[in-house]
């Protein structure tokens, strides 16, 4: 499901609005604003819509079909590029073992943790980097004031 928090009707309305606002654009180009440019042509093919179809040539039934596919599509991961290409990884020091204000270990005094060494995975888009910098700052600040 590419839009798990959006109902099929709401998604259909969003697509319809996009198509209405950009009637002379190809549907595939508009859809790449919502999903990957590699998936958009496949989606159109599944819905039996020609890849060159303009937005104003797509009818309500086809829009509902697009929304239904986007809302119910299941992908099976068959392989990865390995850990060296990972965007984020899970695991690390358990957060309940670390003071959330100082980032000091609750088990070993004067031992501080920050960033991805902790078992925290944020959304993509800079959140993991922000957490790494912010937690590093707080851990460092508390480490130098440690008594």
The general outline is elongated
CATH fold label of the largest domain? Helicase, Ruva Protein, domain 3
Total helical elements: 5
Mean pLDDT: 90
Structural class by SSE content: mainly alpha
What count of domains describes the coordinates?
2
Helicity level: 25-40%
Catalogue the unreliable spans: none
The H-and-E topology, N to C, reads as: HHHHH
Based on the coordinates given, report the CATH architecture of the largest domain.
Orthogonal Bundle
Describe the secondary-structure layout.
Blueprint: H1 8-21, H2 27-31, H3 40-46, H4 60-72, H5 127-144
Helix pairs in contact: 1-4
Describe, in plain words, how this protein is organized in 3D.
By secondary structure, the chain is an all-alpha fold. The protein folds into 2 domains: 8-72, Helicase, Ruva Protein, domain 3 (Orthogonal Bundle); 88-144, no CATH class. It contains 5 helices and no strands. The protein has helices at residues 8-21, 27-31, 40-46, 60-72, 127-144. The radius of gyration is 23 Å and the shape is elongated. It starts with 7 loop residues before the first helix and ends with a helix.
Summed up:
With 147 residues, the protein is mainly α. Helix content is 39%, strand content 0%.
Features:
147 residues, 2 domains, 0% strand, mainly alpha
């Amino acid at each position: 499901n590419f839009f798990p928090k959006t109902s099929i009707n709401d998604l259909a309305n969003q697509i319809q609005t996009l198509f209405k606002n950009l009637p002379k654009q190809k549907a595939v180009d508009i859809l790449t604003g919502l999903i990957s440019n590699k998936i958009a042509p496949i989606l159109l093919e599944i819905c039996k819509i020609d890849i060159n179809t303009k937005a104003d040539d797509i009818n309500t039934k086809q829009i509902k079909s697009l929304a239904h596919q986007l809302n119910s599509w299941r992908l099976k991961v068959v392989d990865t590029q390995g850990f060296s290409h990972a965007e984020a990884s899970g695991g690390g020091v358990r957060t309940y073992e670390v003071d959330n204000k100082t980032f000091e270990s609750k088990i070993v005094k004067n031992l501080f943790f920050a960033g991805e060494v902790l078992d925290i995975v944020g959304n993509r888009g800079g959140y993991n980097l922000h957490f790494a910098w912010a937690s590093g700052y707080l851990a460092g600040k508390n480490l130098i004031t440690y008594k």
